[in-house]
Write a structure and sequence with these properties.
Blueprint lengths: L9 E5 L3 H14 L3 E5 L2 H9 L6 E4 L8 H9 L4 H4 L3 E5 L4 H9 L4 E4 L4 H13 L1 H7 L19
Parallel strand pairs: 1-2, 1-3, 3-4, 4-5
Helix pairs in contact: 2-3
Amino acid sequence: MKLVDFSSIRLLLVEDEVFIRSTIKRMLRSLGCRDVREASDGTEALKALVDGFLPDVVLCDFRMAPMDGLTFMQQVRAIPEPARARMPIIMLTAATDEATVRAAVALGIRAYMVKPVSPKQLSDRLSAVLGKREEADEAGPSSPLTKQGFRRTGLPEC
């Protein structure tokens, strides 16, 4: 696994639960992440992107209102600017049902993390995704993943 300098990454954290969002942000800070932007739902996250923030990676919950994570991902993948449309998205969720995972895979997530997460899981997953970012970007948003279902997606799970 490629070593990642967390101090230089830009991260967008999309989570509606304030306690969970602040806990994950503290974990990210402890890893050395300096540029962490927060959004409480997909609408707020899209606004951050439209306003010019270009994260290296997005950590996104799925069950939020008014715009959930799947809708956010659909909107991101539809952006005509390739750098934004292809940015790596890590699913951060309590949902482990096959339908949710299949929908996320179809939209090109790079990995998923089941809440609650530990600092080590967060570090490992970010390192894996960011270390493979260049390879995945060349291949396209959904290429390293299959659409074969929850246990056969090939996605690294925490």
